[in-house]
């Protein structure tokens, strides 16, 4: 009966586009499925003629959705309408949060021996013989059933996600994938066959690289059934070569004499690559086949090459760069809490871009001198937070640092939040977003400012408005904030008000802004998008992040601004941009936590 009711109920649908350059891959798909399962309706995803269950990670992945693709989400059942609304917005949030893997910048090499070009995953230099990866499978019979083994493997993945919180998403995604691939009636053979078939249905480099996750969950289940895997790695230093490695193998590599890793068939977005980078193991992707000898080779990921028959000079040169690289990494890490002074003695303040309580704690640990951009959208991703929840979160974050810049809610364009009802617009990037919410959603802004002011509790902090394009917008937002303070009897004399410079009109209004704002922060992400009329999430268009025009614009801002200026767009985290930013007198940078040590060390070179 229930089934018939569902069958004849009105379907609701939404067309969703893949905006992340990583495609709709395992981690966001797993999060999406977890959310979809909360609804009772039947939920399907349709691409062309293919229609699959949207509550199963495996079937969702089988659509091979790449950047630029679109699919229709269809829900049928009692809660179908809410399901579509919630999931459509959640999907957009997932796409926004799924940042592209930053390309690794390599240097030019001067080796004499025969070289093969490679794609670097994790920088560093290794000199050692190559060892071809092999593993032995040994089976000791147990009376554990496949169902029990699956449950144990799921529990293991859950425990790992808690233990290794930096890679939590990978383990939770594998757990969800495992759930979607097992059924109560399986034998191990059936399960293995399904893994084989389903993983080979993944098409396209980035999707195919997730095949290792399918093999990884199979291995975990088999381990519970009594299978063990022996690797037999050499005891002398070695460079490991393999088609691909399972993500779970990476943590074991650190305990061996490994110097580097060459993978033939993975992509820089695979979980194996992400974990290699996280472990700091020099590693590259090399699809060119070459003959293996017992002699040492040079794997120079910093220059993006393998030197097959290195000359004596090549080896000395590589040994020198290896030493330099290791010393630099070590120095950057050890000196992460020290100020960054240029050779001429000018201090550049390095703050952090933060978007949650955890990331604020990480920033502290990585040597941030404060928070240069607190993105507050994280509080609004699922439901509207209460005043108390917001106040608590801001209080916890403000307590960590003396220097804090908190940005008011920046919704719209690429930042969609599920329950904030932004009317559909033909050009959302040019519509209601950022500071414009002060007029369209004044209750939300009132509550947010109330929470920020309560949490500040007389501490001197900076409040920054996003997407400001006119002086009137700033004045309105500031008066609004003052009214909020007055209404709740909070003294805000310690609070400075400023703007993000991310809309080009501001470049021509600096003289006027100088008379009203307390500070500026340049947001190169949006500023670049609007300067070049190129949407930051566009599937095919890209702007050179190091375009001379961007540096000219920054120079002109610094020249014309009479209030303090910082830089918080991604450009500030780009090591290659530092030598060009310093002569422009950019003296405050706000960067993502993992770049703090290296950015500081780079500054010290000039
Ligand atoms: C920017 O636009 O450069 C910026 C820092 O803000 P966001 O990336 O959050 O839009
Ligand atoms: Mg922005």
TrEMBL record:
All copies of domain HPr, residue ranges: 11-98
MF GO annotations: kinase activity; metal ion binding
What does the UniProt keyword field contain?
Kinase, Magnesium, Metal-binding, Transferase
Matching CDD domains, A to Z? PTS-HPr_like (cd00367)
Output one GO BP term.
Answer: phosphoenolpyruvate-dependent sugar phosphotransferase system
Q: Does the keyword S-adenosyl-L-methionine apply?
A: no
Q: Which cofactor does it need?
A: Mg(2+)
Kindly give the InterPro entries that the UniProt entry links to this protein.
HPr-like, HPr-like_sf, PEP-util_enz_mobile_dom, PEP-utilizing_PTS_enzyme, PEP_util_C, Phosphohistidine_dom_sf, PtsI_HPr-bd_sf, Pyrv/PenolPyrv_kinase-like_dom
Q: Please verify whether the record's keywords include Nuclease.
A: no
What is the similarity comment for this entry? Answer: Belongs to the PEP-utilizing enzyme family.
Q: Which NCBIfam families match?
A: PTS_HPr_family (TIGR01003)
UniProt name for this protein: PTS fructose transporter subunit IIBC
Q: Which organism is it from?
A: uncultured Sulfurovum sp
């Amino acid at each position: 009966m229930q089934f018939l009711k569902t069958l004849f109920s009105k379907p609701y649908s939404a067309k969703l586009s893949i905006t992340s350059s990583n495609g709709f891959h395992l981690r966001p798909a797993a999060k999406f499925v977890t959310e979809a399962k909360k609804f009772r309706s039947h939920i399907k995803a349709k691409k062309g003629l293919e229609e699959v269950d949207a509550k199963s990670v495996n079937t969702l992945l089988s659509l091979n959705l790449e950047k630029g693709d679109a699919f229709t989400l269809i829900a049928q059942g009692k809660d179908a309408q809410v399901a579509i609304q919630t999931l459509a917005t959640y999907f957009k949030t997932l796409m926004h949060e799924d940042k592209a893997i930053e390309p690794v910048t390599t240097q030019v090499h001067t080796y004499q021996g025969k070289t093969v070009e490679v794609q670097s995953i994790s920088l560093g230099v290794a000199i050692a013989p190559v060892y071809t990866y092999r593993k032995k499978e040994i089976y000791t019979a147990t009376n554990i059933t496949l169902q029990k083994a699956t449950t144990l493997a799921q529990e293991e993945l859950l425990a790992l996600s808690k233990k290794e919180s930096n890679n939590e998403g990978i383990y939770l995604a594998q757990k969800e994938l495992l759930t979607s691939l097992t059924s109560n009636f399986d034998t191990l053979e059936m399960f293995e066959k399904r893994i084989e078939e389903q993983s080979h249905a993944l098409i396209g480099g980035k999707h195919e690289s997730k095949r290792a996750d399918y093999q990884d969950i199979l291995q975990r289940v088999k381990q519970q059934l009594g299978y063990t895997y022996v690797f037999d790695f050499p005891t002398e230093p070695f460079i490991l070569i393999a088609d691909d490695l399972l993500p779970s193998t990476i943590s074991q590599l650190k305990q061996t004499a490994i110097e580097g890793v060459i993978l033939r068939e993975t992509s820089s977005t695979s979980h194996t690559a992400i974990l290699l980078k996280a472990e700091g193991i020099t590693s590259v992707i090399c699809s060119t086949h070459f003959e293996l000898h017992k002699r040492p080779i040079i794997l120079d990921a910093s220059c993006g090459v393998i030197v097959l028959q290195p000359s004596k000079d090549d080896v000395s040169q590589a040994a020198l760069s290896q030493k330099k690289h290791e010393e630099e990494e070590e120095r950057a890490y050890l000196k992460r809490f020290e100020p960054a002074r240029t050779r001429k003695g000018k201090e550049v303040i390095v703050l952090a871009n933060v978007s949650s309580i955890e990331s604020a704690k990480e920033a502290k640990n990585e040597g941030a001198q404060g928070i240069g951009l607190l993105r507050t959208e994280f509080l609004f991703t699922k439901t509207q937070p209460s005043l108390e929840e917001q106040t608590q979160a801001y209080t916890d974050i403000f307590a960590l640092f003396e220097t804090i810049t908190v940005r008011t809610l920046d919704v719209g364009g690429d930042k969609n939040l599920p329950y904030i009802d932004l009317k559909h617009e033909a050009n959302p990037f040019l519509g209601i977003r950022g500071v414009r919410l002060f007029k369209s959603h004044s209750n939300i802004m009132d509550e947010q400012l109330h929470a920020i002011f309560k949490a500040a509790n007389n501490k001197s902090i900076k409040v920054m408005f996003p997407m400001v394009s006119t002086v009137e917008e700033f004045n309105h937002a500031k008066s609004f904030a003052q009214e909020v303070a007055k209404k709740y009897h909070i003294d805000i004399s310690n609070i400075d008000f400023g703007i993000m410079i991310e809309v080009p009109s501001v470049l021509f209004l600096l003289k006027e802004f100088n008379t009203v704002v307390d500070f500026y922060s340049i947001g190169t992400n949006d500023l670049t998008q609007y300067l070049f009329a190129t949407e930051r999430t566009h599937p095919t268009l890209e702007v050179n992040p190091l375009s001379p025009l961007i540096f000219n614009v920054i120079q002109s801002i610094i020249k014309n601004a009479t209030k303090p200026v910082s830089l918080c767009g991604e450009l500030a985290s780009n090591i290659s941009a530092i030598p060009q930013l310093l002569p422009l007198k950019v003296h405050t940078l706000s960067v993502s936590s993992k770049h703090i040590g290296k950015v500081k060390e780079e500054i010290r070179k000039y």
